[in-house]
């Protein structure tokens, strides 16, 4: 058995290392959400939501996904809108209602919601506010074109 383990170890030592920064299409990234400033919350066209974009691509540093945290005060809203890529929400704190194509879905800590691409959806936070993680399979947040229903 020892000889077989030695042979296996030698074979593994000669193997090409996979999933190392040098051979991945994009470099690994770690982001501390507490270090990312809040954006949004100032344009009445989309509501009172604020967000922190944690993982995002750019022309010189492409990514395969976007990840962020949305934050709402009590009763805060993200007005009904659409965008082409599908999106997910994952409840972190508080409660709220996410309405997708007219169907309400409760969001709270631990609840995941899938929003199909092109579906109209909006959010209203509960009395204690709401925080959820959101994500898209898209190269950058800036490439996602939001179409708000009130502007349609």
TrEMBL record:
InterPro entries: Cupin_2, GPI/OXD, RmlC-like_jellyroll, RmlC_Cupin_sf. Coiled coil: none annotated. Residues 69-124 form the Cupin type-2 domain. SUPFAM superfamilies: RmlC-like cupins. Keywords: Metal-binding. This is Cupin domain-containing protein.
């Amino acid at each position: 058995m020892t000889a077989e383990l030695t042979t296996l170890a030698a074979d593994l030592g000669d193997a090409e290392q996979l999933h190392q920064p040098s051979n991945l299409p994009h470099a690994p990234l770690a982001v501390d959400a507490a270090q990312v400033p809040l954006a949004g919350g100032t344009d009445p066209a989309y509501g009172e939501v604020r967000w922190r974009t944690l993982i995002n691509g750019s022309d010189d540093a492409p990514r395969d996904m976007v990840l962020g945290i949305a934050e709402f005060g009590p009763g805060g809203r993200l007005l009904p809108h659409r965008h082409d890529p599908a999106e997910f929400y994952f409840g972190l704190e508080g409660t709220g209602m996410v309405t997708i194509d007219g169907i309400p879905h409760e969001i709270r800590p631990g609840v995941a919601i899938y929003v199909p691409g092109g579906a109209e959806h909006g959010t209203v936070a509960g009395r204690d506010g709401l925080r959820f993680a959101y994500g898209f399979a898209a190269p950058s947040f800036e490439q996602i074109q939001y179409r708000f229903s009130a502007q349609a």
